[in-house]
Amino acid sequence: HNEEKYISFCLKSIFELDGFGESEIIVVDNASEDNTDGIVRENFPQVKLIQEVRKGTGWARQAGFSASKGEILAFIDADNVLPKNWLKQAEEILLKYPNGVAYSGPYDFKFGEISTFLINFYYIFMMTFISGIFNFFGVAATLLGGNMIIKRYALEKIGGFDTHITFWGDDTLIAKRLRKVGPVYFLRSFRAQSSIRRLAKGGMFKLAFLYPINALWVILFNKPFTKSSKAIR
């Protein structure tokens, strides 16, 4: 949604991945009011561009899933940039954990040393340790929606994305549902670079509360703690 500032960087990073070959790339324009679709049409004609007028990450990802044909699906947010070795890492992960139904990893942000330490602590403690406990007992798991891989058969088995959550906790819900099909892996080495726009506008400490509490609420009650989300672009 309104990704004219970022979409080119994201797509360029995908096409420049080491080992990139014949792959289906789909861009979902989620009710944009800027020139997102124009930029994609003009600069990336090889990309399949589809429109989804219902705003929300669930609607957008479901639209991309419905339009796709592949058996291994990668979901990348438009403000993310993939490192050159991302695809090779993905292949290695799929081979190492063939029983998995979904895979994900953290975002990298460009911050000062203190902020970076806090974010890494969050990933280690919340994403890896706490969610690992839920994952071990098969109750829930962790996926970051802008950097995740899902096997098609598993997504089909659960009926695709749940669209009643439009932002907060959406990736937690899909992880929880997929965990009932099979193992979900969150690997701290499988990273993608992300913009800091939401952290910059929402505040790091505020979001450090909102993300975990909404994830926990979804795990326990299948709905987010925060009822609505504010557009930042």
Give the tags:
four-stranded mixed beta sheet, Spore Coat Polysaccharide Biosynthesis Protein SpsA, Chain A, globular, alpha/beta, 233 residues
Tell me about this structure.
The protein is an alpha/beta fold. It contains nine helices and nine strands. The strands form three sheets. The chain has a four-stranded mixed beta sheet. The longest helix has 24 residues, at 113-136. The chain is globular, with a radius of gyration of 17 Å. The model has no long low-confidence stretch (mean pLDDT 89).
Major beta sheet, specifics?
4 strands, mixed
- On the 0-100 scale, what is the average pLDDT? 89
What Rg, in angstroms, do the CA atoms define?
A: 17 Å
Q: How would you classify the helix and strand content by structural class?
A: alpha/beta
Helix content: 40-55%
Number of domains: 1
Q: Numbering strands along the chain, what is their spatial order in the largest sheet?
A: 3-7-5-8
Please mark out the parts with pLDDT under 50 across 5 or more consecutive residues, or reply none: none
Number of strands: 9
Question: What is the correct CATH architecture?
Answer: Alpha-Beta Complex
Shape: globular
The succession of helices and strands, N to C, reads HEHEHEEHEEHEHHEEHH
In the CATH scheme, the class would be Alpha Beta
Number of helices: 9
Binned strand content:
5-15%
Q: Give me the CATH fold name.
A: Spore Coat Polysaccharide Biosynthesis Protein SpsA, Chain A
Distance between the termini: 8 Å
What is the name of the CATH superfamily? Answer: Spore Coat Polysaccharide Biosynthesis Protein SpsA, Chain A
